[in-house]
Design goal:
about 300 residues, mainly alpha, MetI-like fold, two-stranded antiparallel sheet, about 0% strand
Length: about 300
């Protein structure tokens, strides 16, 4: 008769717990199913991404095709070319097709500028927080100085020198949005650098660069992902605002901000020109905020029970 030792019983118990414990992806899925806000946000974001990727195939009409015989037609108008479900603009272009195609620019600007700002800000904040002392003071005063410059003034200056374009808009939003990431990352690092595992890494002779990359960065990423998810909505609003003011993407590129600018002078006679792109912006930003709020609840250890 064989006897089971205490270590073997403990090992078998741990293995049984691991088998019954759901995987990380399953835990995320169960958390998402129990969160109506997160589910709604994810659905909205996926629909916007789908429209951005497959926009030309989903559009019922050519978004840039002029049809002067169908100018200022109300939603539901039909002719030989088909039905214009959201109406037409001052050049007879289909509003629905333009709203679908405009999602592509919003997604590109939102994701690209957030990635640029996040990478710069997180690395900057980790360096400032881990170094401490005079270097931390200098780096954060630079960040505070940039934060003091109004965003619109900087956008006007850059657009005036370089010229408004999609690339310029992404760079302006990326290189002005990193300060928020830097301050959040620095605050996290000020706590992490005093923990025992960081002290132990220093004792065994690890270099500061290795500690920042292998031990500090992974623990800062959760906060950075949460902030990035929330900042995408802010960036989409900023892109629409700048395009509306003529400082962002220019016609004939289709964007929601340009559609709002085109429709503002016809708001009394053709309300649908500005209303539907405005609704698209509102729903998209709400979806991103809902999804970011759920990610915060899931990834932030301070909010988990």
């Amino acid at each position: 008769m064989t006897t089971t030792t205490q270590p073997e019983r403990l090992n078998s118990t741990l293995m049984a717990v691991q088998r019954t414990r759901p995987s990380r992806w399953r835990r995320l899925w169960l958390s998402l199913r129990s969160s109506p806000v997160g589910s709604i946000g994810l659905i909205i974001v996926l629909l916007v991404l789908f429209a951005a990727v497959f926009g030309p195939m989903l559009s019922p009409h050519d978004a840039t095709q002029h049809n002067l015989r169908a100018r200022f037609q109300a939603p539901g108008f039909s002719d030989d070319n088909g039905t214009y479900w959201l109406g037409t603009d001052q050049l007879g272009r289909d509003i629905l097709s333009r709203v679908i195609l405009g999602s592509r620019v919003s997604v590109i600007v939102g994701v690209a500028s957030v990635v640029i700002a996040g990478v710069i800000g997180v690395l900057y904040g980790i360096l400032a927080g881990f170094a401490g002392g005079w270097l931390d003071a200098i780096l954060m005063r630079i960040a505070d100085g940039l934060l003091a410059i109004p965003f619109i003034i900087l956008a006007v200056a850059v657009s005036g020198v370089v010229g408004p374009s999609l690339t310029t808009l992404i760079l302006v939003l990326g290189f002005t949005g990193w300060v928020t990431y830097a301050r959040v990352a620095r605050g996290e690092v000020l706590v992490l650098r005093e923990l025992d595992y960081v002290t132990a890494a220093r004792v065994v002779g690890r270099e500061d660069s290795g500690i920042m990359i292998k031990h500090i960065l992974p623990n800062v990423l959760a906060s950075a992902v949460i902030l990035a998810a929330l900042q995408v909505g802010v960036t989409i609003l900023a892109e629409s605002s700048l395009s509306f003011l003529g400082l962002g993407v220019q016609s004939p590129t289709v964007t929601w901000g340009v559609m709002l600018a085109d429709g503002r002078q016809y708001i009394g006679s053709a309300w649908w020109m500005a209303t539907f792109p405005g609704i698209a912006i509102t729903i998209t930003v709400l979806g991103v905020v809902f999804l970011g709020d759920w990610l915060r609840d899931v990834l932030d250890p301070r909010l988990r029970g």
